[in-house]
# Entry
Amino acid sequence: MPRPNLVETVLRACRDDAVLAAGGAVVVAVSGGPDSTALLHSLHRGAPALGLRLTAAHLDHGVRRESRRDARRVAEMCAEVGVSLVADRSDGGRSRSENTLRRSRYRFLEEAAVAAGAGTIALGHTADDQAETVLLHLIRGAGLEGLAAMPVREGMRFRPLLGTWRAEVEAYCRRQGLEPLDDPSNQSRRFTRNRVRLDLLPEMARYNPRVKESLVRLADAARDEHAVIAALADVWLSLYAGGFSRAALALEPTAVQVETIRRAWSAASDGDDVPGDAPRLRQAVHLVITRSRSKGMLDLGRGLTLAVDGDHFHIVQKPAKKA
# Structure
């Protein structure tokens, strides 16, 4: 059975989304590569049927010499389809890590969304990106939430192409006569994700030619299972909001114990997605549920401490050092 075309895929994802079902303003992240070019083009074609108001956003990290030229090409693409563009340049990209560049990009996109009155930032992540993300998280020792990788909707972030393979996106660009930019940095093994895509996944495909599909299925299963555990952790936190009971938490399954402390930690960290690593989470759980210890403290980093005192535990700001 033939797959629907890209515009139909994007339309269906938007209609299935609780935020966009009624229309509204959307900021589209456009790097100029095939994924974001196809996303902008297909969203623009579907916008009248959905009642969407689009604004494109492009951040030039200054990583490559050609980046200024690429920024001009993105501006031309947006002008061709009649979508307004918000653009900025961030110098010093060569000296920054992948994570730093990613955080900088998301901060820029969020600011653009606020300025546009948009509740949604559309991103061009594909099923290939999902498979790569699962593998990256697996290598780094992620738990169930990490294996769940990227959801279609994550706060303001919206990924309507997450069920679409990169080859389909590139085929759409060819059919529509689009000319996306070719970013040579995608071939640079300086970045871990590129090494996973260029080296590790092809090697794994020798053992399972459909390894990317397997990784995407793993993400789907992990997300479903994590949703159940997260719901149980939220119920526990609501019941003991006045004081976290060590004895009550010890009665819960280990997965719920870990998720409960992770969510309490995240809330104390002003909602950081990943407030700490898995080993420190395990240390925190061990400290809380070991009843032989009536007092104890664990430095969580970022100015936070897990404190055990008698029958209760708390996550608190570390006391300031005396002058």
Q: What stands out?
A: The mean pLDDT is 89.
